[in-house]
Specification:
Blueprint: H1 2-5, H2 7-13, H3 20-44, H4 47-90, H5 96-119, H6 123-148, H7 150-161, H8 168-171
Helix pairs in contact: 4-5, 5-6
């Protein structure tokens, strides 16, 4: 069935070489092992363990959702990486592979942050770290554009508002030599 819906091709293109049936088999094995472990712990009827098990069962859905989000994010990052690589090679950009890998790393990091927030691990730290990181990137681009485009901005302002013509007498004052 996974072959008919194209899941095999999606996994192969994303670099995962295992078949979906292997994932399913391992998943069912781990779920059954987990269920029997929880039944054994429950049979002991120790209050501390019961509280721990109930907290863990409340944590499992968030963990599964976080893992699913990260997996989907990884698949999206592989797709974007290949798209950027093809576009960069066609545009004859010198560092096409580096650019595509960098984009993939950024997308994976973004989805990792989303997954960690879903799981509930360091929510404020993750949000703060990404805010600082992306603010720094934007600041770096703004500085690069500002410093690199200084002459372009000067020319645009002179064209827009006109250059003020000064006479020799107006141009000479006590600070003109500085």
């Amino acid at each position: 069935m996974s072959f008919r819906i194209g899941l095999d091709n999606i996994l192969a293109k994303s670099g995962i070489r295992s078949k979906p049936i292997e994932f399913t088999g391992k998943f069912v094995y781990l779920v059954l092992l987990f269920i029997f472990l929880m039944l054994a712990i429950n049979a002991l009827q120790i209050e501390t363990l019961d509280a721990l098990v109930s907290k863990f069962f409340l944590f499992v859905p968030n963990l599964m959702a976080g893992l699913f989000l990260f997996f989907v994010g990884y698949l999206i990052s592989v797709f974007i990486e290949r798209t950027v690589l093809i576009a960069a090679v066609n545009a004859e950009i010198r560092f096409a592979r580096f650019l595509s890998r960098s984009i993939q790393l950024i997308v994976v990091a973004f989805f990792l942050a989303i997954a960690l927030e879903q799981i509930g691990i360091g929510q404020n730290i993750v949000v703060s770290a990404f805010t600082i990181l992306f603010s720094g990137i934007i600041l770096a681009f703004a500085l690069a554009l500002g410093l690199g485009g200084r002459e372009l901005g000067k020319d645009w302002l002179e064209k827009k508002f006109g250059k003020k013509e000064t006479t020799k007498e107006e141009g000479r004052d006590m600070w003109s030599h500085i």
